[in-house]
UniProtKB/TrEMBL annotation:
<dbReference type="InterPro" id="IPR037165">
    <property type="entry name" value="AldOxase/xan_DH_Mopterin-bd_sf"/>
</dbReference>
<feature type="domain" description="Aldehyde oxidase/xanthine dehydrogenase first molybdopterin binding">
    <location>
        <begin position="4"/>
        <end position="131"/>
    </location>
</feature>
<dbReference type="GO" id="GO:0016491">
    <property type="term" value="F:oxidoreductase activity"/>
</dbReference>
<dbReference type="InterPro" id="IPR008274">
    <property type="entry name" value="AldOxase/xan_DH_MoCoBD1"/>
</dbReference>
<dbReference type="GO" id="GO:0005506">
    <property type="term" value="F:iron ion binding"/>
</dbReference>
<protein>
    <recommendedName>
        <fullName>Aldehyde oxidase/xanthine dehydrogenase first molybdopterin binding domain-containing protein</fullName>
    </recommendedName>
</protein>
<dbReference type="Pfam" id="PF02738">
    <property type="entry name" value="MoCoBD_1"/>
</dbReference>
<dbReference type="InterPro" id="IPR016208">
    <property type="entry name" value="Ald_Oxase/xanthine_DH-like"/>
</dbReference>
């Protein structure tokens, strides 16, 4: 990544003549694939606590795989980034499912408005309803 950036890595995509590639292939495989609705169903549900410290900074302790979300929470609250502190906790399981913002904005907003600590823990039903999970996907793939 660059020194003054939070970009860790960039990926590119190679393009070419697809018809030529198929013409030169010994074998071409074509099929239709269906992936059903999937949820990560990790052991602990989405949860977090937030509080204001003596400097007026909103502290958020949350089980997340991406602590950089403090920027998004700051934008939701219309606060400078240095007024939101994100503290990651141990993760019992995530599998990529704890990369999105879940409870953070809600608890931070309630803390900002009430000036009191806030705790929110989703039930399994709330977890399934409130967050993005992998949706049903159907695709035709040709490979050669």
């Amino acid at each position: 990544g660059e020194k003054d950036s939070n970009i860790v890595n960039e990926f590119g995509c190679l393009t070419g003549d697809i018809e030529k590639g198929f013409a030169e292939s010994e074998v071409i495989v074509e099929d239709r694939f269906e992936i059903p609705f999937i949820d990560h169903a990790y052991l602990e549900p989405e949860a977090g606590i937030s509080w204001l410290d003596d400097y007026g900074t909103i502290n958020i302790r949350v089980c997340s795989q991406v602590i950089e979300h403090f920027r998004d929470v700051a934008e939701v609250l219309n606060l400078p980034h240095n007024k939101v502190r994100y503290i990651g906790t141990m993760i019992g399981g995530g599998f990529g499912g704890k990369e999105d913002i879940t409870v953070e904005s809600f608890i931070a907003l309630l803390t900002l408005k009430t000036k009191k600590p806030v705790r929110l823990v989703y039930t399994r039903e709330e977890s399934l309803l409130a967050k993005f999970s992998y949706c049903f996907i159907t695709g035709n793939i040709t490979s050669g």
